[in-house]
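Handoff note, outgoing to incoming analyst
You'll be picking up this chain. Sequence as last confirmed:
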Amino acid sequence: MRLASLVFSLIISINAFAFELPEESRVPGGIAMISLNGLNTQAAPSAWYRGNRVMVVSSKNTEYAQQSPWLAIIGIPLSAKASAEQLMKADGQRFPFRIKDKAYEEQRLTVTNKRHVNPNTQDLERYKREKNEMVAAFTSWTSPEIESLNFNLPASGRFSSPFGLKRFFNEQPRNPHSGLDIAGGQGGAISTPSPGKVVAVGEYFFNGNTVIIDHGYGLTTMYCHMSKIDVKIGDQLNTGDRIGAIGKTGRVTGPHLHWSVSLNNTRVDPLLFVKE
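Most recent structure output, in case you need it:
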């Protein structure tokens, strides 16, 4: 009995120091974990995929520790084709990998504001400016101390639109759904799922009131359609800090939070980062 108790305590102790990783899913819109075999450098190697810098973390205290001291965590775009070999490069070495295909469902929505379906010239010019601002936030690179890559959900409510849906607005095809919609009700609280710094705040044409948070190493989260924003650029937030409130600003059919997770400037399924 004493031996069983000792073994159980040891397991608990080991798990307490384990570095929590997201769930791997090598599909379009998913995440690939690549051990950087042969790279035994003291500092983290510089890794790149599709022109964007890739997150590299120490494999210590992870299940990959025996393979290599460094682990690359790669966001795979929804546009990636399973038939094409994917290639990541790190410190001059090539790390090819393959993905599987995934069939996402379709969603058809009726949008009453016709300009949100067919924007005019001024709307498009505004959208381009706002897109540049968002891309700058998605491609920002910081290197804070990270204790975990698991997130809490940022709001309470049902999942009204999952990630990856093939979307049609007023029967016109649009880009796949790049986030998770949480229908928590008008005014519901939105909180940060993990420590990070606010790097963008704006009222955007499609996204409405929006906040983007940088969590480090190319990992960012975006919160859209908010009724109220309670943070400003530069704010350093801890897990659970209030960001604002759920609303229906921008292109929406009702109040909800659109939550996006971006890794190496690639939108991936947010639920891959959420704790069970």
